[in-house]
Amino acid sequence: MSNMKYDAITGSGIEVGERVSIPDDLIPADAQVEMDAKTAAGYYTPGAAPDAEELKKVKGRGLDP
Question: What is the pLDDT of residues 5-58, one digit of tens each?
Fold first, then answer.
């Protein structure tokens, strides 16, 4: 979940017991670009969010089928 949602939930007094990231083996290889963009934008990650240089290296699927 995004930090914006998390902050709203906890700010209203709801306690979040644990934040859990999506396991890597459940993320298709061509969806990694979206997951990296989300973590860079503030979605939860247990590690460091990718920086601008790391985001340039990630490739999504092409336009051709």
Answer: 889 999 999 999 998 888 889 888 788 888 888 888 877 777 788 887 887 777
φ, ψ of residue 30 to 5 degrees: the values are -80, 0
> With contact defined as beta carbons under 8 Å apart, do 44 and 21 qualify?
yes
Instruction: For residue 38, give the H/E element and its range.
Output: helix 32-40
Contact 49, 40 (CB under 8 A): yes
Give the CA diameter of the chain. Answer: 48
The pair of three-digit structure tokens given for residue 31, joined into one six-digit string: 């969806």
Which candidate, 26, 23, 21, places its Cα nearest to that of 49?
21
